[in-house]
Design a protein that fits this description.
Length: about 100
Amino acid sequence: MRATKLIVALPRSGPTQEALVGGPLGVDAAGCVTVGTERYVLVAPPGSRLVADGTAVEMPGYGVFALGSVLKAGGGVHEDISDPPEHWKGCAGRAFVEVAAKNG
């Protein structure tokens, strides 16, 4: 399993939606990293990147997660987004899990 695209959130100021999000990391039909058995598209915090030739995700403050491993983090869920932000487009799903940036 190898990902070709990681959606990364834009830097922002102010509070973010905080809930426990997580599940196994996977890849959708378009090559985007997903999270959970429902295969929500992962929106990683700013500074995140694909590593290990697309077989892992590095997220500042969280570490490196291999595809197939379980991610548990704070963040929020965006259900059934019919017109996602431009930088979120190109993935197979319309539901997204946004992982909150860790401060410090």
